[in-house]
Automatic annotation (TrEMBL):
Localisation per UniProt entry: Secreted
A molecular-function term among this protein's GO annotations: chemokine activity
Record keywords, A-Z: Chemotaxis, Cytokine, Disulfide bond, Secreted, Signal
Entry-linked PROSITE patterns: SMALL_CYTOKINES_CC (PS00472)
CDD domains on file: Chemokine_CC (cd00272)
Origin organism lineage: Eukaryota, Metazoa, Chordata, Craniata, Vertebrata
Family recorded in the similarity comment: Belongs to the intercrine beta (chemokine CC) family.
Keyword DNA-binding attributed: no
This protein's record includes keyword Signal: yes
Functional note: Monokine with inflammatory and chemokinetic properties. Binds to CCR1, CCR4 and CCR5. One of the major HIV-suppressive factors produced by CD8+ T-cells. Recombinant MIP-1-alpha induces a dose-dependent inhibition of different strains of HIV-1, HIV-2, and simian immunodeficiency virus (SIV).
N-terminal signal peptide: 1-22
Protein name per its UniProtKB record: C-C motif chemokine
Organism: Ameiurus melas
Length: 97
């Protein structure tokens, strides 16, 4: 009787875990919770990504050469310039034979 009860409890926990994991799949990833306070040199940035619109705080995530990611405020001028520069570099590299 004890093993049957234990089995039912474990089965219930597994079901609860799967429901919890499924609900977490609807959250945006990644989001910014704070912004970089100083300008990042363009030469150390390899890529950027705009955060999902479901995030509470709109942001731009820069990937640095070190592999680290840094959030920045997309309304700041240097952030917009860096995004445009990266877009331009990617466009130029894709159009060259």
């Amino acid at each position: 009787m004890f093993s049957r009860s234990l089995l039912l409890v474990l089965l219930g926990l597994v079901c609860l875990q799967s429901f919890t994991t499924a609900q977490n799949g609807n959250t945006p990833d990644p989001c910014c919770f704070s912004y970089q306070t100083h300008k990042i040199p363009i030469k150390v940035i390899t890529a950027y990504e705009v955060t999902d619109r479901r995030c509470q705080k709109h942001g731009v995530i820069f990937t640095l050469k070190s592999g680290r990611t840094v959030c920045a405020d997309p309304d700041i001028e240097w952030v917009q310039k860096h995004m445009n520069t990266i877009d331009q570099l990617l466009y130029e590299s894709s159009t060259q034979p």
